[in-house]
Design brief:
Layout lengths: L1 E5 L5 E7 L2 H4 L5 H15 L58 H17 L3 E4 L9 H10 L6 E5 L4 H7 L5 E5 L5 H5 L3 E5 L2 H9 L3
Parallel strand pairs: 1-3, 3-6, 4-5, 4-6
Antiparallel strand pairs: 1-2
Length: about 210
């Protein structure tokens, strides 16, 4: 698959780059992508939820009425889950939601996501650029020139502080380096905007393994 290289004005530079079949030409593995996204979201959970059970709520432990003869069900402490203000039955407790996935599966998931974007023509190439200072309006103008008005994932070959600071306040823009891309971000974007030099990083990251 060939892509035209654009400049920051959105103009065709006349150069074309062939995407690696080993990175962008695979048959997407939907189950691998599902597991990788599931792990990513699970790892975001703090797991600090907690409710009080009957042994933890404040209240008297005195038996509130006699066992028999009232015509109603027997009742013990006011802290019973049956009463208002009582403890909760089987409530949530702090726990760790993270789980392990094999490296090969995570690699397959990322390659599948990249291939899926390429298959759907959601990948664009832009030549290397930089900003003299953090400037959100200037960065937004570049995205408009590249017709990236929806959810956009910009992939840089390496961290560029000015670009990161310029785009971090834009709600539909995510900026990542080629070595740090993940399946969730790839599937959660409408357009994958690759800086030209990031292709070499992706090729070295995936093609040699």
């Amino acid at each position: 698959m060939e892509l035209s290289v654009l400049n920051i004005k959105g103009e065709d530079t006349g150069r074309k780059v062939t995407l690696s079949e080993a990175v962008f030409g695979l048959e997407p593995n939907e189950h691998a992508m599902y597991l990788d996204v599931k792990q990513y979201l699970a790892n975001q959970r703090q797991g600090t939820h907690k409710s009080k059970e009957r042994a933890e709520v404040a209240g008297s432990t005195k038996k509130i009425k006699k066992q028999k003869g009232t015509g109603g069900a027997r009742a013990g402490s006011i802290k019973s889950p049956l009463f208002v203000g009582g403890g909760r039955v089987f409530g949530p407790k702090p726990r760790d939601y993270s789980f392990k996935l094999n490296k090969k599966l995570k690699r397959t998931a990322r390659l599948s996501a990249l291939s899926l974007l390429a298959r759907n023509n959601q990948v664009a190439l832009v030549e290397a650029f930089s900003l003299d200072a953090p400037k959100t309006s200037e960065f937004k103008g570049i995205l408009n020139n590249l017709q990236s008005t929806g959810k956009t994932l910009l992939v840089l070959p390496a961290v560029d502080k000015n670009i990161v600071l310029s785009g971090r306040n834009l709600p539909k823009v995510k900026i990542s380096t080629a070595s740090d891309i993940n399946t969730y971000d790839l599937l959660n974007t409408q357009k994958l905007l690759l800086v030209e030099d990031s292709l070499n990083v992706l090729d070295n990251l995936f093609s040699t393994k």
